[in-house]
Each structure stands twice: as structure tokens, then as C-alpha cells.
Amino acid sequence: MSGGLSHRMLRATYQTGIVIVTNFAIRQATVVPLAAMIVPMLVGLALPRYSSVSQQMSELEMYAPAADITTRIAAIVSGTSIVLFGMGLLRIGFRQFVFTALAAIVFGISMVSNGIFTMGGPLHGLYGIGIFCVVAPAFFAAEFRDSARSRTIGTLSMAIAVFSLLYNWMMIVHFDPAGFQGLTQRIFAIVAFGWYSIASYALLRSKVAEPTGEPQNVGAAYRAS
User: Fold this and answer.
1) Range of the domain at 166
2) What does pTM read for this prediction?
3) What separation, in Å, do the N-terminal and C-terminal C-alpha atoms of the chain show?
4) How far is residue 94 from each of residues 62, 100, 140, 147, 220, measured CA to CA in Å?
5) What is the pLDDT of residues 75-119, one digit of tens each?
6) How far apart are CA 59 and CA 129, in angstroms?
7) How many domains is the chain built from?
8) Is 213 left (phi over 0), alpha (psi -120 to 50) or beta?
9) DSSP 3-state of 208
10) CA distance 45 to 61
11) pLDDT tens for each residue of 117-133
12) Residue 208 β-bridge partners
């Protein structure tokens, strides 16, 4: 009897731990990805001879060592946060969020590579896999199913996906306005990384799958834990 009770207590403790870790992975994305990208934006404003309007954030690596290190760390932190978000999605509902999760993880890995490898080489962004930032919101719009919020969140996510696609298309065909590449990149970053705040908040406030795979209110489970 005592052995069975101990087993149930251990199992309950394990499940509680999984819920806490999973919800942390989702909750941290409300702040970290966007906040980390705002840091190099602020650094750029403080640097002489650097234009936040015409120069992209990766170009901060060519200036003062402190700016270089700060920009790299910001990319790594943001990317790691997005990878954690994707892993959290897999834990709360593998079948429900598999495409969103995998797209987020790939994009997060590309951001980490931006912080590790210098600008100009193919490993900076891992051969362009950062393009997955476009499909993550679109996949989420299709996979997020909550009767109270799915239409609003879905429409917003699709709009962000279209915006991201348009920006990346402009980059590829060199339609990005000359002299304003820094400004357009920063607008894109605020929208693209801000989406993770929106998705995370929507998940925490909605009925999605817990790590067990059964429909539950993750936000309530987090607050209860």
C-alpha cells in the first residue's frame, strides 16, 4: 500500500514538474525574444558613426567590442528563448502544434547561429533557415484551436506571416529601400519577435493540451502550480 502511494506521489511530483517547466518555456516567450532584440536597437542609438536607419543590427559587430558582444549575446538569448518556446509547444501538444513548434525551433537555431558566427559567412543564419520565421505564425494560425480566441489570434498571426513574407521577399529581390535597410529591419524585428509574445499570451490564456496530451487550461495549470 505504502509503495503504491509513494509511486503515485512521485508520479504526481513528476507531472507537476513537467507542467511547471513546460509553462515556463511558453511564458518566458512573452518577454524574452522581443526584449533581447530591443537591446541591440538601443545599443545602435548610442553608437557614434552608426546609423540605425541605414544599417542593420548585424553591422554592430563591426564597431566597438562591447557592441559586438552585446549584439551576439542578444541574438543567442532570443534564439534560445524561441527554441524553448518550440519545445514547450511540443510538450503541451505534439500533434496539435508540431508544425509551429518545428518552425520556431529552426528559426531559433538560426538566431543562435547569428550570435555565434560573424556576418558575411553562410553559417551566419545557417544558410538562410531564418526564413522559417515566416511560416511559424502561419502554422500557428492553423493549429491554434480555442473557440474564444482562435479567429482573432489566427487572423493576427496570418497578417504577421504575410508581413514577414513581404519583408523577406523585398530583401531577396533587393526592393528594400536603399538607405533605410536598418529601419525596415527593426520594424520587421519588432513585428516578428513580438509575435512570440502574442502567441505565448494566447496559449497561457486558452485551453490547449497539457504535457499529458489531454485538453486542459495551461494558464490555469501554471497559476495553480
Assistant:
1) 2-224
2) 0.86
3) 27
4) 41, 10, 13, 20, 20
5) 999 999 999 999 999 988 768 899 999 999 999 999 999 999 988
6) 20
7) 1
8) left
9) strand
10) 14
11) 988 888 988 998 999 99
12) 216
Answer for the pair 207, 216: CB distance below 8 angstroms, yes or no.
yes
Closest CA to 96 of 143, 148, 37: 143
Q: Are strands 207-209 and 215-217 parallel, antiparallel or unpaired?
A: antiparallel
The SS3 of residue 209 is: strand
- From residue 146, alpha-carbon distances to 100, 139, 161, 197 in Å are 16, 15, 20, 17
How many whole angstroms separate alpha carbon 175 and alpha carbon 28?
35
- Tally the C-alpha atoms within 13 A of residue 102's C-alpha that lie toward its C-beta: 7
Q: How many CB atoms sit inside 10 A of residue 220's CB?
A: 12
Q: Cell numbers of 195, please?
A: 509575435
CA distance 157 to 223: 26
Give pLDDT, residue 3: 59
Task: Find where cell 523577406 sits.
Answer: 168
